[in-house]
Every structure is written in C-alpha cells, then in structure tokens.
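Researcher: Structure for this, please.
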Amino acid sequence: MSAQNVVVTGASAGIGRAVAVAFARRGSTVGLIARGEAGLTAAARDVQHAGGRAVVLPADVADPAQVFAAVEQMENEGGPIDVWVNVAFTSVFAPFDQISPEEYRRATEVTYLGYVYATQAVLPRMKARYRGAIVHVGSALAYRGIPLQTAYCGAKHAIQGFHEALRCELLHEKSNVHVTMVQMPAVNTPQFSWVLSRLPRHPQPVPPIYEPETVAGMVLHAADHPRRREYWVGSSTAATLAANAIAPGLLDRYLARTGFDSQQTSQPHDPDAPANLFEPVDGEDGRDFGAHGEFGARSISSDPQLWASRHHGALATAGAAAVAGAATWLRRRR
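Model: Predicted structure, token format:
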C-alpha cells in the first residue's frame, strides 16, 4: 500500500500511538491528535523515526471546534486526508453509583462524541473527493457490557450503533467513502495506569491480553479493506461475542460472579495515581506514557484473527470454532 495521509485520534499513547507508528512505517504523513504535550512530542518523534512525517494536532476530541480546526490544519499542512482512525477515549473504573454525572458526561463526550465530531469534520471532505476510509476502534464491550465499566461500555455501545447507521447511509448513497470498525480485546496500554479508578485494588485487563501493535496491524488491514462492516482482534473477542449471542443471561451471571476480581490485581490502588479524565497526565509537567502498559510479561504479540482476515475462507473457519468454543464454555458453567 502506498504512503497515505492519515489522522489518528488518541495518538499520544496506547493503541493510537501504535497505529500512528504502523502507518509511519509505510512512509505516511500522520496527523497526531491528543491533549498531552509530552505524549504528542514523543509520538511525533516515533513517527519520524519510523519513516513517516508527523503533523502534531493538539486537540480535545470532546470539543468539536478543536476537531474541525485540526482537520483544517492537517489538510493545509499534510494534504487531503485518506484515512481517519478514531481511537481516543477516557473512562472511570468504578461501580455505577460511584461515578458522578460530570464524570459520566466527560467520559461519554470523549469516548463516544469524539468519534462523532471527528467523523462529522472529515466525512464531507472525503465525500467531496469520492474516496476515503474511516476506522473506528471499538471493543468486544461494544456488544457485551461488563461490571465496573458502565461509562466505557455505554460509549462503545453507542459507537457501534452510530457506526452501523452511518454505514447504511453510505451504502445507500453508493459512496466510495467507507467506514469500518475494529473490535479489540484486552490490550496492554497505559490506560490502567491513568484512567480514573475508585476500585480498592489496581485495575488490570482481563486475560488474554494483547499488545497494542496487534490491534494496530488489524487497523491497517481494515484501512486497506474498509468495505467490511467490522474486524475482530483475538479469538477471545470472537468467543465473547458468540457467547453473548448464545446465552446473554447466563453470561450476565458469570460476569457478576467473576467480573469484579478479574479486573483487579492483588495490589492496593494508589490513591495518588494520576487520572486523565479532565486533564492529560502527559501534559506540560507530565511524562510520556508510550504505547505499552505494565502487563507486557502477560501479553500476546500475535493474532490468528489478523491472519484469518488476510486469508480468504479462514475467517469463517475461525468464527465457527469460536462459536463452538463459546457454546462449550457456557455448557460447562451451567
């Protein structure tokens, strides 16, 4: 695939950082949207070292005026945008009744409306040129809510509905602009070190845990082949979606029993830990958190779903195996 002009939101850390570097390795010009100064500076350096050109676009995706201005700046400095990748999010790890209305609003504005505002800003330009791809980074939690993450799950469900409706509109128009979605599993990103948490113990992803580069590989594949409705990263994601389709009520009870402990380590939560809900923790006086979190020793760096997506016919086989595995998993817990 030839070099492209790409914009990534949430580009200063985690999956967004990995996606930006992956596109840079193709020689792309990569627009980097995030709030944190230290993270953006380091991300731009990574992009340049990987062979790309960085355009730094400081913006809060919850502010539509800032997002529209970032699109204008990118097209002026980098050229017409070929690919837009929505990644940015924030959230709160806490039981529902321990989250304030202001915190809920902020998490929703960033995680859901940030995708909407970005798509509103770039889509008319793509449609006018009759080309372009928008990739939404979603989650298995777009289909299956889990305890302690009501704000995040609600936003991801909203993104899923928005994505499906917009895709139908573009198909109706026979547009050559495409939207697709990448549903991710648990990923080893810095979010577990900087998302606001009111849990008694340190938050953790539920295994199996994947490295952010694994998701980035699927995002690149989705950008190259955006006609598909969605892509899944990790067999665990496929199994979760299949299990929820087969027996959602049983899965509710299983998660009610296991979902609290499985999302916390044995270490107590640090009450002085940083939280990026309202302000970036990699701001002027902060530090660069990079793409990776603290769970690298337990993480997976390859994904059979990506292989299956690149090899026609194998995906159907993997999906059937996931459904069969989910059915077996549920039967054993009855």
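Researcher: Any notable elements?
Model: The first strand starts at residue 5 and ends at 9. The radius of gyration is 19 Å.
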